[in-house]
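Lab meeting minutes (informal)
Scribe: AK
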Amino acid sequence: MRIVVVDPSRTVLKIVAQLLEAGNHEIHPFTDGLAALEHVKSDSNIDALITSVELGSMSGMDLCKKIRLLSANSRQSIYIVLMSANYETRKLIEALDNGADDFIGKPPAVEELYARLRAAERLGAIAARTGPVGDDRSFKRVVKSPGVFRASTRSLRLR
């Protein structure tokens, strides 16, 4: 996979890059979110972005939103993983709500990082066959009310 890695700490960046290179991934490291964004704009073959939540020029959440908009407009499917030393449920929810596909602690555990990238590769293979998975406004939101939830393909109008 071709992966952009963004972290303001050169030490963390080096650790993550070495882990990924050992897994035969091509790494494009950046300490600045704006530089990483420009690189992704100019390289349509990027498969994944791994970024720290804590960046200098822009937040990792903002970078995630901008990359997600970019990939939606270009139909380029980029798997986005946000990482933070402050791994808590609130951060995880915020990351996913801002367009991240995954969230991982920093520095990441080797096997966990590899497992998440294998999941990204599976999703990439699916997207290659069916088109990118993205923000599809054609779906209907289903909310479960108290009590038993019942639905049929007819009531949901599934195709």
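Next up, CB showed the second protein from the same session:
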Amino acid sequence: MENIKLDEIFRACNVVFGDLYTIDNNFLKKLDLDFLKKTFRQKVFKYHPDTYSGTNPNELKTRQEQYILIVNSYKLLEKFLLSKMHLKIKENILRQQKQQKRIDNFSYHRHRKTFIPNRKLKFAEFLYYNQKITWNELIKAIVWQRQQRDKLGEIALRWKYLDEKEVKFLGRYKKYNELIGEFYVRLNKISPFQLQTLLYQQRKEQPKIGEFFVKIGKLSRYEVDKFAVLLSEYNSKLKKIKDKPV
């Protein structure tokens, strides 16, 4: 069993699962005995000679051959999953995927002549990787956006989660570098859910970061709108790849 080749395992998987799933490294990594048995029972019933009610001898022979192939493939996969080789191959696949992930972390886009991370991006990041803004301009934009938005405590006052006296009094008990929202939760002044609501409202009310680049004359409003569409398409494409079933 230790001499079995990986391509034999993939061929057996294609026989048992091929018309139902995409057979690749991810599939092999997730494959387990229960799933194999369940799929095998469904597949073998479909091709079992005893279930054939026709009279065509050629078709019966084809079903018999397919039945034998499915059974043999199942036995091979069962032995594989019960062997140490399964663990070794799984470890190798995980190692290869980690290596490939490091390689693919930055994908080269020839039409842009720049490197764009293979992950979901925010608007300013997308502009930076498309060489529309510098790194310093990206940082300035983030700082500007944060300066323009209401403080979390102000929103909490407006929504009556806290009163003004509490805000002033509690400030002296805040730890160094402790986030103000986590500070209020620690003192049981707001719940974690209320904190998430406040953070959502804070992000919702802050000016869009693209306004900064229009304000400093770096981009026109047309360019901001155009890159917003391109970013949406880019992130949607990544999501479809990520959500693609195995």
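CB comment: The chain has 13 helices and two strands.
No objections, moving on.
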